Structures are given as structure tokens and as C-alpha cells.
């Protein structure tokens, strides 16, 4: 589990990098590679002495472009909200009672995903 949104974003990039080149990922979501590495490294600081903050729009662009809902689900969990992805919604529509109960437990965090 990631401690910061920057680390979570780096994991999301790593997952997509299995399928395409990192430079292509950065181009598609319109971020500079240098800024990305400054954000994901918790030891990097700005000239003002502050750590680099994670731009929220990066997580939204990643979610929109690659349908990776991990960032949105993490932000929702941090805000004590629920996020139901389109895949989970489809499973809720098509599942039987036992599968639906298991899925709802996974969504709200009662049961671990298998």
C-alpha cells in the first residue's frame, strides 16, 4: 500500500509501463518526466524548502486515459466515501446474491480481495 499519492501514481505508471513505453504514457497524460520524478521522490524539495506536491489532475488524467481507478478509489477512501467503478457496477447488475454480497464487502473494505 502506498503512503503518498505520488507513490500510488508511480505504481499506476509501473502497471501501464508493462504494456507501453513510459515516454508514451507521459505524452498521453501530458506530464514532464522530470516533474514526475520530483513528485514521486519524497526526498526531493522545491527551492522554497517544501516537498513537491502531487498534482490532482495527473491522477484524473491517468484514470480517464487508462481506466485505472486506483487513484480515485484511494482519494474516495481517504475522504470516507465509496467509489464504485464501472466494472464493479456491471458485476453488481449481473451477479447472483452471494457474488453481490462479496463485491459490496470488497467495495466497502470489509473483505479482502482474492
Keywords summarizing the entry:
single chain, 114 residues, mainly alpha, 7 helices
Explained architecture:
By secondary structure, the protein is an all-alpha fold. The protein has a domain at 5-83. Helices cover 61% and strands 0% of the residues. It has seven helices and no strands. Helix 1 runs parallel beside helix 4 (56-66). The longest helix is centred in the first third of the chain and has 13 residues, at 5-17. It starts with a helix and ends in a 6-residue tail after the last helix.
Structural class: mainly alpha
Number of strands: 0
What is the helix content?
A: 55-70%
Number of helices: 7
Major sheet size, sense and barrel closure: none
What is the strand and helix layout of this fold?
Layout: H1 5-17, H2 22-29, H3 33-40, H4 56-66, H5 70-78, H6 86-94, H7 97-108
Helix pairs in contact: 1-4
Amino acid at each position: 500500500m502506498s503512503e503518498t499519492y505520488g507513490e500510488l501514481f508511480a505504481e499506476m505508471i509501473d502497471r501501464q509501463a508493462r504494456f507501453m513505453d513510459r515516454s508514451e504514457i507521459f505524452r498521453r497524460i501530458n506530464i514532464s518526466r522530470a516533474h514526475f520524478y520530483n513528485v514521486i521522490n519524497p526526498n526531493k524539495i522545491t527551492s522554497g524548502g517544501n516537498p513537491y506536491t502531487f498534482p490532482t489532475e495527473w491522477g484524473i488524467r491517468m484514470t480517464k486515459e487508462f481506466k485505472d481507478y486506483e487513484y480515485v478509489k484511494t482519494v474516495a477512501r481517504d475522504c470516507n466515501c465509496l467509489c464504485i467503478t464501472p466494472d464493479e457496477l456491471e458485476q453488481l447488475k449481473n451477479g447472483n446474491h452471494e457474488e453481490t454480497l462479496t463485491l459490496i464487502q470488497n467495495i466497502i473494505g470489509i473483505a479482502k480481495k482474492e
